[in-house]
Design brief:
The protein is of the alpha+beta class and 404 residues long. Helix content is 47%, strand content 8%. Strands 1-2-3-9-6-4 form a 6-stranded mixed β-sheet, with helices on one face. Strand 1, helix 2 and strand 2 form a beta-alpha-beta unit. Helix 6 packs antiparallel against helix 8, helix 6 packs parallel to helix 16 and helix 10 crosses helix 11. The radius of gyration is 21 Å and the shape is globular. The chain starts with a helix and ends with a strand. The relative contact order is 0.19.
Length: 404
Amino acid sequence: MIDETRSGIQPPVRHWPAVDLTGVNFDPVLTELMRESPVTRIELPNGEGWAWLLTRYDDVRTVTNDPRFSREAVMDHPVTRLAPHFIPTRGAVGFLDPPDQTRLRRAVAPAFTAKGVERVREKARDMLGELVDELVRDGPPADLTAAVLGPFPIAVICELMGVPAADRHSMHDWTQRILSSSYGREVSEKAKNEMGAYFSDLVGRREGSTAEDVTSLLGAAVGRGEVTPEEAVGLAVLLQIGGEAVTNNSGQMFYLLMTRPDLVERLREEPESRPKAIDELLRYIPHRNAVGLSRIATENVVIRGVLIRAGDPVYVSYLAANRDPEVFPDPETIDFARAPNPHVSFGFGPHYCPGAQLARLESELLVDTLLDRLPGLRLAVPSDQVPFRKGALIRGPEALPVTW
């Protein structure tokens, strides 16, 4: 790339339509952008203007951990974006910077530590066992998404959040409408408001609680004056939505495994390889469409000789960072022995996904249970006939027809 700090020339703006993709196909536009330059400019289907896109591993980690790139400053700037909704509003938890963002995460940290996640392990194993029992009783063929991959993450995140089992269906319905751009902005925003009203009531009823679930922790923090009721509700919504993303991620994981019998055979023959294998699958799977939330440069910053000016919007691609050949040799190969494997599938820096350990736990339980209990598990249709979600921000199969 021409050094803009010397020439004043900026790279061209590339329109990124972010079309629906099937399987685990890597976005062809992102592939081109990665090849063209590590620092380039993009225009997404919604919002206004253009934004910088960074695709190299070191740059992605730098921007996501550098206070000169602010989420909160997005409030004051029109930004090109993927979805028609997810318009930032003042005080929205996903657009806070430290120290406020750190303060809010501290309120729920006990639920997401290794100890907190282990608290739900046996309950999660039991819930998964019941779902697989029912799957086996009903017999093949079956839709693995509807039978297991959908209800399991919902049950686990609701357990961790302290949401009663009777309300799981409502949570799932709201989340699906929030995580899709196909319903339109009004429907998605309505679902977000309804979920917010639900958590406002639930958190309010748990002020002073000593329980360890997330809504109880938030209620207690509100009671102590450490967070406001509005902040508690915003964080609860964000965590609930994020917890259900495991459905689509695990759907892609099992789609990939069932189209690669050699990988499944190794996981069955070498169960000790599964933890590393799951990390490698998380690195490899293109878990989202396009990019997530933007940041704004609060001062001039030079990255790889390119001047990003104060006020410029910036996106990073974790998917691209996970394919950086300087960090992951032969990145297009799935290598269960890859070590080290410092993938950024759960983000990096202050906004690192708080549910990362929970997502790993769920993935481990799913792989162990389904591969061990259903040794003949395979697709019931040709791989190109598996329907994938349309308009989804998080990629994954709409249904996963299987037999065994």
